[in-house]
Design brief:
heterodimer; A: 1009 residues; mainly beta; Immunoglobulin-like; Ferric Hydroxamate Uptake Protein, Chain A, domain 1; 22-stranded antiparallel barrel; five-stranded mixed β-sheet; 8% helix; globular; B: 526 residues; mainly alpha; Serine Threonine Protein Phosphatase 5, Tetratricopeptide repeat; two-stranded antiparallel sheet; two-stranded antiparallel ribbon; 4 strands
Chain lengths: 1009, 526
């Protein structure tokens, strides 16, 4: 049906094109005579417009006497009156002051001139989002924006991404707000793991997020608002920064069909290293047996993944209305067997104008449906990788691959075939085929907007949007799955989750001049946001309860109802009124004043649900105020101070009895202590910056300094066991986290020749993070991830940076010698700090080259400083499968500098004795901490633009070879430190059998008709 | 322009509703899957609802790993019942006398959160109004909390629920006195209702096998009193005798048939040991059990343990406190048997009541029977409970004694037998030998409930258990006497530092696992 519609539209527009009669043509070039592709041409006073192709050619319908307006970013706009000639060639001069007219999309979709901004905002053009396409659009911004740290989840293709702008500032959430065309999007995932061992509810799995579900081809650009000032208009949701996406707008008067196809091949990169010299003793799980060669089966386990993204977009605009339609299909197979993804994106956008163009109406709808089979998990449970890595050497891996199940005559069913009964390592092919999981996500986003231009200074707009996300996780665990994970008859686990958001606003925009020198603009509005996240129904036949009939995966076959439950993560309504004003003086001095008042439902029963926060900012254009040397085109300084309030967890102030799985007492688990009340979090930030452009805008830089502090964090303290309220935790406000840092963005047109050009940009950011205060009654610390039974813990500790990695070290004497017990075993410390997950600074270096029709882009991405821990390596060591243990055995032991209590110095230890004590998930993990510093070739593309003349019916065409995560220039850790086990707050800076990072190489084909 | 007016009206209305309507905030902020305290009052569920968590957490029934930390890796092992083949935390843990705070905290926390709090909550809502519920909550509280004082010594008891930030501890003597008084209250209240022929209002709430029968609950309270009385026999023999005789003399008496025994009958949860042993392979038969059961050729062995998968047809136990190279060393020794693959969790046996009376008789108390008769009744009751046959021959056996322990894989763990008593009663033997027989049989009968067996071991020193070969206590716990208590947990020290200090002051010793409790004197058994 969709295809028929598409064909119809193509035919229809072709006819429209044939009906056009008179055209003005020409070539648009820059001052050097180089053709300018993508320059725009408008007929002044009408809605007709066109843009030039790759050879700078344009065609536009115009009448004699009309004025054509030629414009191109970075160049002086020209106007030419149409005469008799039908060919008008235009040479455009470099603009000396283009920065003054540049427009940036800011909060609530409001466009502002860049010069008037009092805070840092960095943009990415649509091209950057699709050049080296990733199935998750947000992964493509890594290394491109100063101050933004992007960490991919270990969930493989379709996984979520953790984005942190200007450092972690909150105990509960550090992710930014995503906004599409001014309307906040609900970026809700169905949950993130936070268990060092692995979740028994189907493994440590990535519940995904919404931003990974959008179609990158739908957007023409992205603006990142980094600070609190930029996001004050979004209130609490924007406290961690805002990422704005702008939809592609239809070009008026022109039907456009764009299609692209990307195929990439992913291979596992940076696998752990394994020994091949020793096997396991008969019947042993660990490979500490005799010396005997055994093949490295690990590499062959991984497949080459293939990702294909095909997208097609159609748009048509006229004076009064426009229509755009897009469709994208993503089909991928992962590097682990049995893992695949299918995603379909549909988008439609319609605009129309009424009443002499005074009333504008726009509607858009997007729908995404995604299915992932066997999404990779991390941790020790349900993870095929543990079986692959740890399999006792000397066994034939292929034998267990081909025969992962064998017939069990006593039960008359196919049973798992594996040499050991260990919960942490099943037969990987059993885990893949008989513990199969399916993740289904559906995302709908519908928005309506009405804008009424009452007069030349007042516009009133109202918008409404609805987001709906459903996630289904379904796992069928067959009988004879290891007993810790499943009942003897198998286990069925199904989780159905719904999240919705309703958003409405009403905003009056005032744009006026007061006298000749003063401008005033203001946005005054009100909004309401109603969110429901993760309303889940969880069906679990359980481990001890189980299924009545083996392998019959349905609710009616459950032995009992003990593990089925319903839950909600949050439900809240926030009502707001806000005003943002800008006073301008002679277009050189700007003053921003804004304020917002929120009423949040989460503050019910706390005395007041209302809280107010203001911001103030100043910008001065030095280049306008004083006369600067000729070569300086633009100079600006700015400063701003802002506050953002953040409401508290929902339901806390209204405790109820509640059924939690695994608990037999439904009394409320957390609440305020009698006589105390809760209040919102408050983030305050000040920021100073300066922006300069020079040498005909070929060189520009921007420097920002910021300092933010988030106070009154919502924390929970373990309530004394004798407490009157009967709660496990008291909720209260306390604590303070500080972030201060500097961001530098440099852009340079290094070479701008006729045939060759080289543009380069560098972004640098440094963030210093400190947990300034955590209260005594929680021991001045908050564990974001509890250690459980492993020697990894992730915590906030007063006086330390956010996210300290804690582990266990050797006990050493003053001379640095390791202390041994009488029996020769190591003495260990308690948990102590062994690392810090924050980078000291980040550097992105991006280069684009043009050589005639060829183009190339290279992005280098570096993170410097910080640490990571590898429990994978530790466990591989203790099981005697790692290369380190093989080498140590070959070398006759491990050299140590240790001393016994009686003073005997020990210089060497048997490899098995050493690694079984030091290695392991609960070992001396301080020895498994690595520097997280890494520099990688993040993106490379090399392409060719076809000459339009040689193309029969296409408008433009290009082909490029693309690569992502090509290789590391420097890396210390035994895994890719840019991958996290969770995109939530916990499980950072550690690898516990996460999916290896992938290197992808592919081909990108783009055509427009 | 008409449309324009409508739009304006709509705008005004939406503006007003947006800023003026926070009235439903409390509704929005109430979890729809939750139940408000007000709603819970229907059907008196606010009172009755507190019982289920008490029943389910005296021994934690779910999740299994909490049971493992609450009891499975502490007193189930220190009692000599079971051993773990797993070298948790590098083998340096509770089993080798390096007490793991992160484990033991579950014992403390679950008792207070689920047993003590609910008892307090029920008392607040029922005392003086629905005294039958109050009485029943007291019995369950004593059942749950005597385990806690027997683990730590001084604990929070009389001051529970205080709004102060520091909640002082009671000495163990004070706790015991209060428990006796609470049993007095409960027994009097329920006996009165039985006498009045009042129907039970506890039927639907009772998760024991008693079906709400007040008389059965009184018997349980009496037997519990007898247990507590015997516990303090070395420190306060006078009070012990008074309380024990009071229990036995009550008109409903103590447990006499296996229908009387106290067990949780869970509609849902299987004994967590089944999973810990069967799926996780984390708990095995102990070397002590192997030595004694094998020595007596005990007919109950087959229900207590499975045969080893490594040595088919044999029962193989694991010695506690040995060097563990890998879990594979001993994980395929004998797992725990059919006794735990059940949704019935026995917390007090009828056999125990007989053995307590036997010991009382031995001490010259009026227990309505001779020590020998009661001892033999206890063995019979246990055989009957386990469905084992051959009790008569077993009781008459005056030959067999415990056998040496042999670890087929690691001979360094071998040990000669430590216990040399036979089953048969010997009237000519010393009281000490008689007591050893009684406690040894009580130990066998009580399996797998390790808490009580550990308490008896500390009180009497029987049965003699194989000492650990690895002691990582840093000198605080002796290998000879073993773990005497658990030190106060870190979370409690953080949340109630003053309280812990008051507890340590009443402990009469350092806050370590080697300090003896109030009733655990170094004096002789007689």
């Amino acid at each position: 049906m969709k295809k028929i519609f598409l064909i119809f539209m193509i035919v229809f527009t072709a006819q429209v094109s044939l009906a056009q009669v008179k055209n003005v043509k020409g070539v648009i070039t820059d001052s050097n005579g180089m053709p300018l592709p993508g320059a725009s041409v408008l007929v002044q006073g009408s809605q007709k417009g066109a843009s030039s192709d790759f050879d700078g050619l344009y065609t536009i319908e115009a009448q004699k006497g009309q004025t054509l307006v030629f414009s191109y970013v970075g160049l002086e706009t020209q106007t030419i009156v149409v005469g008799d000639a039908t060919t008008i060639n235009v040479k455009m001069a470099n603009a000396s002051s283009n920065a003054l007219s540049e427009v940036v999309v800011t909060s609530l979709g409001i466009k502002k001139t860049r010069k008037s901004l009092t805070y840092a905002a960095q943009e990415l053009k649509g091209d950057e989002l699709v050049r080296v396409k990733d199935a998750n659009v947000i992964n493509t911004i890594a290394g491109k924006i100063a101050g933004v740290a992007v960490t991919k989840s270990a969930g493989g293709t379709g996984g979520s991404t953790k984005v942190v702008i200007r450092g972690n500032s909150s105990v509960s959430n550090s992710q930014p707000l995503y906004v599409i065309d001014g309307i906040p999007m609900l970026n809700s995932g169905s949950g993130q793991p936070n268990d060092t061992f692995g979740s028994l509810a189907g493994g440590n799995r990535d519940g995904g997020d919404v931003i990974s579900l959008v179609n990158p081809d739908d957007y023409e650009g992205m603006t990142v608002l980094k600070g609190a000032a930029a996001s004050v208009l979004y209130g609490s949701q924007g406290a961690n920064g805002v990422i704005l996406l702008s939809s592609k707008k239809s070009k008026e008067g022109k039907a456009n069909i764009a299609a692209s196809s990307v195929t990439t091949f992913e291979t596992a990169a940076y696998l752990p290293k394994f020994q091949t010299d020793y096997i396991a003793a008969a019947g042993a799980d660990e490979s500490w047996g005799a010396k005997q060669s055994s093949p490295d089966h690990v590499k062959d386990f991984f497949n080459t993944g293939v990702t294909q993204i095909t997208s097609v977009g159609y748009s048509l605009g006229s004076e009064k209305s426009s229509t755009a339609f897009s469709y994208a299909n993503t089909s991928a197979s992962g590097i682990t067997p049995g893992n695949s993804l299918k995603k379909n994106n549909f988008g439609i956008r319609q605009t129309a104008k009424f009443f002499d163009d005074k009333l504008t109406f726009a509607a858009n709808a997007n729908y995404t449906s995604q299915t992932i089979a066997n999404k990779p998990v991390n941790g020790f449970y349900f993870n095929p990788l543990t079986g692959v890595y740890l399999m006792p050497r000397g066994n034939d891996f292929n034998e267990y691959k081909e025969n992962y199940e064998v017939f069990d005559p006593t039960r008359n069913l196919m049973a798992q075939n594996w040499m050991t009964n260990r919960d942490i390592m099943q037969n990987p092919y059993w885990a893949i085929n008989r513990n199969k999981s399916e993740d289904k996500n559906d995302y709908f986003n519908g928005a309506l907007s009405l804008s009424y231009k009452a007069n030349n200074w007042l516009t009133i707009a109202s918008r409404y949007s609805y987001n709906r996300i459903t996630s289904l996780f379904d796992k069928r665990i067959f009988a004879t799955t290891q007993g810790t994970l499943s009942h003897a008859n198998g286990r069925y686990y199904s989780e159905n989750s719904l999240s919705t958001q309703r958003y409405g606003d009403l905003i009056a925009t005032i744009n006026t001049k007061i006298g000749d020198d003063f401008t005033f603009n203001a946005n005054v509005g009100t909004s309401i946001t109603n969110t429901l996240t993760n309303q889940k129904t969880i069906l679990d036949s359980g481990i001890s309860a189980g299924l009545v009939y083996a392998n019959w995966f349905t609710l009616a076959n459950f032995v009992n109802n003990a593990n089925n439950y319903q839950t909600i993560d949050s439900r809240r309504e926030v009502q707001s009124v806000f005003a943002a004003t800008t006073f301008g003086y002679k277009d050189m001095l700007f003053l921003d004043l804004s304020g917002r008042n929120d009423w949040s439902s989460t503050l019910a029963n706390t005395g007041t649900s209302s809280y107010f926060y203001p911001s103030v900012g100043v910008t001065a254009l030095i280049s306008e105020m004083t006369t600067l040397p000729e070569w300086i085109n633009y100079g600006k300084v700015r400063g701003t101070y802002a506050q953002v309030g953040n409401d508290i967890f929902p339901f806390i102030s209204t405790p109820t009895y509640y059924f939690r799985p695994g608990f037999t007492d439904p009394k409320p688990s957390a609440g305020p202590k009698n006589g105390t009340t809760l209040k919102p979090e408050l983030k305050s930030e000040f920021e100073f910056g300066t922006e300069w452009r020079m040498f005909n805008n070929r060189f520009s830089f921007e420097v920002s300094y910021y300092n933010s502090e988030t106070k009154n964090q919502y924390l929970q303290v373990v309530a004394p066991v004798g407490n009157q309220e009967g709660v496990d935790f008291y909720g209260f406000n306390a604590g303070s986290i500080e972030n201060k840092g500097i961001e530098v963005v440099l852009n340079a047109g290094i070479i701008r020749g006729d045939k060759f050009s080289w543009d380069s940009s560098i972004n640098f950011s440094q963030n210093k993070n400190k947990v300034k205060e955590l209260p005594d009654n929680i021991g001045n610390r908050v564990n974001l991830t509890e250690a459980g039974v492993n020697s990894y813990r992730y915590a906030l500790i007063e006086g330390r940076p956010y996210g300290v990695i804690e582990g266990i070290n050797f006990k050493k004497d003053a001379q640095g010698r390791i202390l041994l017990n009488d029996d020769g075993t190591f003495q260990k410390t308690d948990f102590e700090e062994v690392g810090n997950s924050n980078p000291d600074f980040m550097l992105g270096f991006s280069n684009s080259f043009k050589f005639g029709p060829f183009f190339a882009n290279v992005l280098l991405d570096g993170r410097f400083g910080g640490d990571v821990m590898s429990l994978t390596q530790a466990q591989n060591d203790s099981f005697g499968v790692s290369k380190a243990t093989g080498d140590a055995r070959n070398a006759g032991g491990v050299a140590i500098n240790a001393v016994k209590p009686d003073g005997t110095v020990v210089t060497s230890m048997d490899a098995k004795s050493y690694y079984t004590q030091v290695g392991g998930r609960a070992g001396i993990t301080g020895e498994y901490v690595y520097s997280a510093t890494n520099v990688s070739v993040r993106e490379v593309s090399i392409g060719y633009n076809f000459n339009r003349k040689t193309l029969p019916f296409l408008n433009t065409a290009s082909i490029s070879l693309i690569a992502r995560n090509l290789f590391f220039i420097y890396k210390d850790a035994p895994f890719d430190p840019n991958i996290a086990l969770s995109t939530g707050q916990g499980l950072q800076g550690v690898d516990i059998y996460g999916l290896p990072s992938t290197r992808s190489i592919g081909l990108n084909l783009n055509v427009t008709f | 322009m008409k449309l324009n007016k409508i739009a304006k009206a709509a705008i005004c209305i939406s503006l007003l509703t947006a800023v003026g309507c926070t009235g439903d905030f409390e509704d929005i902020n109430t979890n729809p899957n939750g139940f408000t305290p007000k709603e819970l009052e229907q059907d008196f569920n606010n009172i009755k609802g507190g019982f289920a968590p008490m029943f389910n957490n005296i021994q934690v029934l779910t999740p299994e790993w909490v049971y493992q930390l609450q009891q499975g890796l502490s007193c189930d092992i220190w009692s000599g019942y079971m051993a773990t083949p797993t070298g948790f935390a590098g083998g340096i843990n509770n089993t080798t006398y390096s007490l793991v705070d992160g484990w033991n905290v579950f014992n403390w926390d679950y008792a207070y959160k689920y047993v003590m709090f609910n008892a307090y909550d029920i008392a607040n809502k029922s005392k003086g109004k629905y005294d039958q519920f109050y009485a029943l909550s007291l019995i369950l509280k004593v059942e749950g909390m005597h385990r806690v004082t027997d683990t730590w010594g001084p604990i929070i008891y009389s001051k529970f629920g205080s709004p102060e930030t520091t909640i002082p501890y009671d000495s163990q003597e004070e706790v015991y006195n209060q428990m006796f008084a609470e049993l007095d209250t409960a027994v009097a209240e329920l006996t009165k209702r039985v006498d009045a022929g009042e129907p039970s209002t506890f039927v639907s709430t009772d998760l024991s096998a008693y079906g709400g029968d007040y008389k059965a609950w009184v018997k349980f309270a009496n037997t519990l009193r007898l247990r507590l009385a015997m516990r303090i026999v070395k420190v306060n023999p006078t009070l012990a005798k008074t309380q024990a005789e009071k229990a036995v003399a009550h008109k409903f008496g103590v447990f006499t048939t296996n229908a009387d025994l106290f067990k949780i009958v869970s509609p849902v949860y299987t004994n967590p040991i089944a999973t810990i042993s069967g799926s996780w392979l984390d708990i095995r038969m102990s070397a002590d059990m192997e030595s004694i059961l094998k020595g007596y050729n005990d007919p109950r062995t087959a229900t207590y343990f499975d045969t080893s998968t490594q040595f088919p047809g044999q029962y193989k136990g694991v010695r506690t406190g040995i060097a563990i190279n890998g879990k594979g060393d001993h994980q395929d020794f004998s797992g725990i048997g059919s006794v735990v693959r059940s949704k019935e969790i026995v917390l007090m046996t009828t056999a125990e009541a007989y053995f307590l009376r036997a010991e009382g008789a031995l001490r010259g108390w009026n227990m309505n029977g001779t020590a020998q008769a009661l001892y033999e009744e206890g063995i019979k009751a246990s055989f009957d409970q386990r469905g084992a046959s051959g009790a008569a021959a077993y009781i008459a056996d005056n030959v067999k004694t415990a056998v040496a322990y042999v670890d087929p894989n690691f001979p360094e763990n071998n040990s000669p037998a430590l216990n040399n008593v036979t089953v048969a009663w010997d009237a000519a033997a010393t009281n000490e030998v008689k007591l050893q027989k009684i406690i040894t049989q009580k130990w066998i009968a009580g399996f797998p409930e390790g808490q009580e067996a550990w308490s008896d071991y500390r009180r009497t020193g029987y049965p003699k258990l194989f000492p650990v070969l690895k002691n990582y206590s840093g000198g605080t716990i002796t290998t000879q006497f073993g773990v005497r208590r658990i030190n106060y947990v870190t979370s409690e020290k953080a949340a109630n530092a003053g309280g812990v200090a008051s507890g340590i002051a009443k402990l009469n010793g350092p806050d370590t696992g080697g300090t003896r409790l109030w009733w655990d004197t170094t004096g002789p058994n007689f």
